[in-house]
Amino acid sequence: MKVLHVTGYKSLELGIFKENDPKVHIIKTAIEKRIKQFIEEGLEWVIVSGQMGVELWTAEVVLDLKEEYDINLAVFPAFENQDKRWPKGLQEKYQEIIMVADFYKPIYIGDYKGPYQFRAKNQWFVEKSDASLILMDEEFPGSVKYFYDAAKKISEDYPIYLITPLDLDDIVEELRMSDPDYWS
């Protein structure tokens, strides 16, 4: 696999309203762990649409990994100015990420026109990537269900890797056990 698409919940769907929420660190650690495994198997590109939540956190993880690994980040929003209605801090973060990403190009030129842009984006990501990594609970899929269902419908052979609530629980336990105070 050379190109991995990563997506998942928006921050509000996870009840995360501040970037310094401890849950963000756990999620980023889980994403980093999986991406590192894929890098060791030959991954060259991580692609995201840059939506707030899992996709922005993934972009941050990949940018951090660039210091140690030969990995590239591409951001392909469904349309221009997707961050127009976001909170100011997230707009700034998004603008910084698209400035330092290895590649940035909106799928549609211009502002939001309709839901067809999101459907086209989902198909585009399946066609342009070798697999997807999705942070999702299949019992409560939220908005990421649209991509998940589209990917399965577009191609039965398209690999989808999940980060589940159990994976996040494992990360919490790993982080707790790596704390020296845990053992005293």
Automatic annotation (TrEMBL):
UniProt-listed PANTHER family: UPF0398 PROTEIN SPR0331, UPF0398 PROTEIN YPSA
Q: What name does the UniProt record give this protein?
A: UPF0398 protein ACFSBH_10190
**Gene3D superfamilies this protein is in?**
3.40.50.450
Q: Which InterPro entries match?
A: YspA
Pfam families reported in the protein's UniProt record: YpsA
Q: Which organism is it from?
A: Oceanobacillus luteolus
State the family named in the UniProt similarity comment for this chain: Belongs to the UPF0398 family.
At the highest ranks, the source species' classification is: Bacteria, Bacillati, Bacillota, Bacilli, Bacillales
